[in-house]
Amino acid sequence: MTFAPHLTGSSRARRTVLTIAVLSGALVVTACSPSSSGGSGGTGAGDDGRTTLTVWSWRVEDEAAYNKIFDAYEKSHPNVNVEFKAFKATEYNKILATGLAGANGPDVPQVRSYGQLQGTVASRSLLPLDGKVDLSGWDENVVASAKGKEDGKTYSVPLARQTVQMFYNQGLFDKLGIKAPTTWDEFVAANDKLMSAGVTPIAVGAKDDWTLPIVHEVLAGARFGGKAFQGEVQSGRKSFTDPEWVGSVKVVADLAKYMPKNVTGVAQTDAQTLFSAEKAAMIPGGSFDLSVFQKANPAMKIGIFQVPPAPGSPSGSAATTAGWADGNFAVSARSKHPAEATELVTWMTSKQFGQMVNDEIKQLSAVPGVEPTDPLLKQMSDNYAKSGSPYLLLTDFRYGAPSGTELLGKGIQQMLLGSKDAATVSKDLDTGIKTWFKPSA
């Protein structure tokens, strides 16, 4: 099956394969498989002589955007077809591992970052890209996401810088005479006013515990000290039982009254629906959520703000925007077209690609010097540039098991259920991480 590079819209969309199933641990592709369409397991050349590269991703919602992006690549690389295949996010890790181990995997897989990249690196499934891609001048926090922990080699090209912040319904705020808060007292007053008006102040989906570390970062990043705390905990001068960290976890408990009733039974998709349906006024979320909200309710005027520092925050602490890199692209060690696949991944370091990531996928490109055109994305980018901090448990504490995000997510969920307090959640986090984490000093 071959596809001309100029095809767009429904014609181009037919080349994207989204149907998969996992049966007895084996990967089953129910539409065009890579081997039949010239991917890693096939000849790689169609009747027109073009090389077909398969790109795998977990971002089904970005199918149309990626097709448009790869159309642009094909125009400048007329001997290449790029076939984009997206799979269900919750099944992607298993599907990718199976694909990379066999003959029918992708040429260019979208891979996880930081600690979650290490298993793929250890399996020798990816080609090192040192000397082939140039990431000099990139954000250090972003570049760290693409490297092997043990050998320090670069195995992927970061796609996007993700940030977390509070989204709010600006129209609803205006209607109730509320302004985006700049102090903690203003933040609490806004929550109280929304509650009095019969509106859920903060939409949280605590049934999905993976979201709760994000909620914690948005609500309490300044309370534990943001970037300053990173150096102290990495060196061993502080731990997750430190009063500042415990206080930050307690912030989430203190704000639970502003969340949906029976919040631990509310899924993240339900929380997003509450916000999009204008039944909740705010929702802590990532930059990757912006396009979801915009598509769900195009008429809603969305704003963002950094939650002000809660009482007890370290001296001089200011509102922060936590960030990390996510969605990196790599080259499969089993690709039959490593040169062409590497050329595609190298193009992903270009400003042309970066600008399309901003404009089409509506995410903050990891490529330096690329300016977002969406005003909210620009605000997120500016906030991170001015007062950014790492999403600590993801960037630094996913290199072992149990991971920091897993421990904190489950711990906060139990705290919201009433079975643990903030001190216990923090102690369990510290104990779990210390089974594999060794301070640098």
Helix content: 25-40%
Under CATH at level 1, the class of the largest domain stands as: Alpha Beta
How much of the sequence lies in strands comes to 5-15%
CATH T-level topology of the largest domain? D-Maltodextrin-Binding Protein, domain 2
How far apart are the first and last residues' alpha carbons, in Å? 56 Å
Identify the overall geometry: globular
CATH architecture title of the largest domain: 3-Layer(aba) Sandwich
Q: Stretches where pLDDT falls below 50 for ≥5 residues?
A: 1-43
Number of strands: 13
Could you tell me the mean pLDDT? 90
Structural class, by secondary structure, is alpha/beta
Task: Supply the number of helical segments.
Answer: 18
Structure notes:
By secondary structure, the protein is an alpha/beta fold. The protein has two domains: 9-159 and 327-349, Periplasmic binding protein-like II (D-Maltodextrin-Binding Protein, domain 2, 3-Layer(aba) Sandwich); 163-323 and 383-433, Periplasmic binding protein-like II (D-Maltodextrin-Binding Protein, domain 2, 3-Layer(aba) Sandwich), CATH 3.40.190. It has helices spanning 9-13, 63-76, 89-101, 118-122, 140-144, 170-175, 184-196, 212-224, 227-235, 243-254, 268-276, 290-296, 338-347, 351-361, 375-387, 392-395, 404-417, 422-433, and strands at residues 20-23, 26-29, 51-57, 80-86, 108-111, 160-169, 200-202, 280-286, 302-305, 321-326, 328-329, 364-365, 388-390. Strands 6, 7, 8, 9, 10, 12 and 13 form a seven-stranded mixed sheet that branches. Strands 4-3-5-11 form a four-stranded mixed sheet. It has a two-stranded antiparallel sheet with strand order 1-2. Strand 1 and strand 2 form a beta hairpin. This is Extracellular solute-binding protein.
